[in-house]
Fold this sequence. Notes:
By secondary structure, this protein is α+β, with helices and mostly antiparallel strands. Helix content is 52%, strand content 11%. It has six helices and five strands; from the N terminus they run ααααβαββαββ. Strands 2-3-1-4-5 form a five-stranded antiparallel sheet, covered by helices on one side. The two termini are 41 Å apart.
Amino acid sequence: MIYLxxxxxxxxxxxxxxxxxxxxxFAVSFMKPEGKEHAKPKKAVFRNKWFITFxxxxxxxxxxxxxxxxxxxxxxxxxxxxxxxVLNDLIHRFQKRALPKLMNRYEKLLxxxxxxxxxxxxxxxxxxxxxxxxxLLMISMKIGRTKQTFFPFxxxxxxxxxxxxxxxxxxxxxxxxxSVLEKRVEKVLEKELPENNKDGIVESVITNVAASAGNxxxxxxxxxxxxxxxxxxxxxFEKRHGKSTRTYMNQIAQxxxxxxxxxxxVAQEMVARQLIHR
Length: 278
């Protein structure tokens, strides 16, 4: 945790230095008084050194065949004219008329809210707005207008099928159930297996029973006769030709269901994506 407070302290210290040293220097050196009383005549833009530079550069670059850069240079010159004749007036009008009205209305609203017991009701209403927004979100998701994924994940590179039988199950019986699951998985991946399609997206299918067959999230690496695991490895993303491995993962999650007495979990690397099916 030391890195977070250290970086935070250094960042705030750097911001303080910039605020007290650099910003005042920049303000004195580069900022000029603004306002209509300080503004130059609009036609002065045509004598501006940048306007002349952009026009000259654009014409010369057009003669040299660099039409893209030339057009950009002429566009910058046109924007200088547009800023002088249009934008400056709009900015001054907003600063002198619209912004003061907006600030006055905001001040009136604050004075109204901070009177009497209204601050308490304003604070309480925040929780009401949160509850209302959450309710509206649930309704929208229920009717299918909004699709929300709270924990999105990319296409898996590995898909695991974890089998858990009752504790004490004979390893031979576990192996037979694992073989059934393996055939179902291979049926889903039939067209993508390397022996059937050299351009398939499946790199390998590895099955373990008892040894190295547990779910890493269980933190138990011992040999257990009631466990089985099927690992499906896909090729790298750039070799998949646009095919989604998540589609196959969802299909595998469907076909491994329905075995009495067996608990089957389908997961991708480090992220369990399906609930346990019994």
